[in-house]
Specification:
Elements lengths: L1 H22 L17 H36 L4 H35 L1 H5 L11
Helix pairs in contact: 1-2, 2-3
């Protein structure tokens, strides 16, 4: 049972960063330079770009590093129960953090969709902004 669970977790965290690299391309700042001049709407587009970048680029990488760090502490623990517990705590915190970030997004999306934000604003997807 433990080997199967470890294999599943290992494959998930091995594949998640490769999926996120495809989403990490693009610019955070949506205006200025050779693009149109900035206006008030671009603030919301910038905030949206930052949120997407954190969720799709930074979160999988940081959680993967924390899981590796927890596994490293667990490996070098030997007979020292404090290092073993520290490794378990780090890995558990990384998994809980990852779950909290993505479950909060799912709950917010479900709540706003069920409240009718998509209908009364005319937006099909409330998280996408496009300034003209």
């Amino acid at each position: 049972m433990n080997k199967k669970l470890f294999s599943i977790i290992f494959l998930v965290f091995l594949l998640v960063p490769s999926f996120s690299y495809a989403l990490c391309e693009g610019e955070l700042v949506p205006c200025g330079g050779d693009k149109p001049m900035c206006n008030f709407c671009h603030i919301f587009e910038l905030a949206n770009n930052i949120i997407i970048y954190v969720m799709t680029c930074l979160t999988p990488i940081i959680s993967g590093i924390m899981l590796i760090l927890g596994g490293f502490y667990f490996m070098i623990a030997g007979v020292d129960p404090t290092k073993m517990q520290k490794g378990k705590d780090i890995a558990k915190a990384a998994i809980i953090g990852l779950v909290v970030i993505f479950v909060s997004w799912i709950l917010l999306n479900t709540f706003l969709t069920n409240m009718g934000v998509a209908e009364w604003t005319g937006l099909d997807t409330w998280w996408e902004f496009s300034c003209n």
